[in-house]
Amino acid sequence: xISQPGDQTQVIEKSYYGSSARVVDTxxxxxxxxxxxxxxxxxxxxxxxxxxxxxxxxxxxxxxSPLKPFDLRSNAMGIALxxxxxxxDGEVSKDILTVQKGKLDKGKSRDIQFDNGIHWNVKxxxxxxxxxxxxxxxxxxxxxxxxxxxxxxxxDQNATYMSEPEFLQMNGNKHEFIIxxxxxNQRITLYKKGGDYIISSYSCE
Length: 205
Known about the structure:
9% helix, mainly beta, 2 helices, 40% strand
């Protein structure tokens, strides 16, 4: 947290992931800022006035979220991480823990609706897995940080290396990322549709 918007040299407070902050800003769009959060990727957001541990200052809104923070002990990633931390309103199957090509027949799809409004869908289309998260009413920075959390291995206690989405390019209004692996790469697209942000990914055999 900094004392004044734009002056990143005046850090007055540091906090841990998941700490509570009370937003007191009445105009969140007043102080725009661009952060290079991913090499080559400039994330647009705002300095937001908050109260944190009894101090008042400004925090980049990409570090704020109305969602319940993921438990650092979750030992999960992807949809399993979301299931571990969010309450489910409705789902088509109660045994969805991981999604693998061999576990979803071609042409089939599954859905989960969480009580925070986030909707998840997965489809098997011609030997490719297409996965979509819909995050209603989110700001770009919120949707980006959610994407980074579910598609990285930040919360995997058994991980031996860091895996997270890498920025590829902008394609119109779409932000394109990739997760590289020895088996197959996974492409991720983040974009706004109406009042929602869509996080769509696919990987093929």
